[in-house]
Amino acid sequence: MDADAVRAARRALPGLGATLNEVLLAAAAGALRTVHGDPDRWPGAPRPLYGSFPVDLRTPREDRMLGTAVSAVRVPLPVTAADPAERLAACRGVLAAFGPLHGGPDTVRRTVAAAARLGPWAVRLLASLSCAPGFCPVTCLAFGWPRGPWSLDGRPLERIVPLPPVLAPGAVCLALTDYAGAYTLTAVTHTLPGGARPLAGALTRELALLARRPEPAPGAPGGPAGPGPARTSRAGRFAGAIRGTRNGPPR
Asked: What share of the chain has pLDDT > 70, as a percent?
């Protein structure tokens, strides 16, 4: 991935900017619109399309623990928003509900801990439910690899390439990693044949759109004299790529 585009996309939100999770979720929503067309034409529309992102459940005192306790949070993706900046702002809004003031990770931690107390079968059931296409058809993994003198067989590590597991039919997974300023995207799909490459290409273009600075308003210094040409949006059918989802209202 273009590292400058990723960094510029993260600066697209005011204040401290966007997190890598927010950028990936927004870009994923736009890429799904590009590949599958207007959501109003999807079978069964309108209904929320849910995506998940990982949550590190370690406490500050466990930051050096070998391994990680990781779970995922399920959120509705803003696929109905036509503007990339609007999608990014929407992702900021839905992820804000899981911040430290709202106890989102603590709730997930309690759920995982309760399942663990019941036994391995409960953990497997919880994992299979969270990965089911009818519950959450889109998985987004965004994480940074810690810097350090990493090497393999004496050769320095240059980048990390994530390899998500094979998914259930009807699901997609998009993983974005950051190691030493090098961003790598992996797309895995179990939908239409050959669906991963178009989705990865569309996500790359979405990041470029998020990275663009807003143009000056018409009549402003340096801005156009009048409104520019109207945008056209792709329209098409979802083609059954993520059929059969039975999602309720956002929670």
From this structure: 65
Alpha carbon 175 to chain centroid distance? 8
Q: Facing residues of 184 across strands?
A: 177
Name the E strands within the chain.
50-56, 70-76, 138-144, 151-152, 155-156, 172-179, 182-189
How far is residue 182's CA from residue 166's CA, in Å, rounded to a whole number?
25
Q: What is the mean pLDDT of residues 58-75?
A: 71
pLDDT at 185 exceeding the cut of 90: yes
Give the integer Cα–Cα distance in Å for 40 and 79: 10
**In 3-state terms, what secondary structure has residue 55?**
strand
CA dihedral 211, 215, 221, 227 (to 10 degrees): 170
Q: How far apart are CA 37 and CA 233, in angstroms?
A: 8
Q: Which residues contact 213 (CB under 8 A, 6 or more apart)?
A: none
Which is nearest to 1 in space by CA: 223, 239, 218, 162?
Answer: 162
How far apart are alpha carbons 87 and 85 in whole angstroms? 5
Q: Higher-confidence residue: 238 or 127?
A: 127
Separation of alpha carbons 65 and 27, rounded Å: 32
pTM of the model: 0.72
* Residue 173 C-alpha from the chain's centroid: 9
Cα 14 versus chain centre, distance: 20
Q: Ranked by mean pLDDT, which of 53-62, 106-115, 218-227 comes out on top?
A: 53-62
Q: What is the DSSP letter of 58?
A: -
From residue 193, alpha-carbon distances to 41, 145, 169 in Å are 21, 31, 11
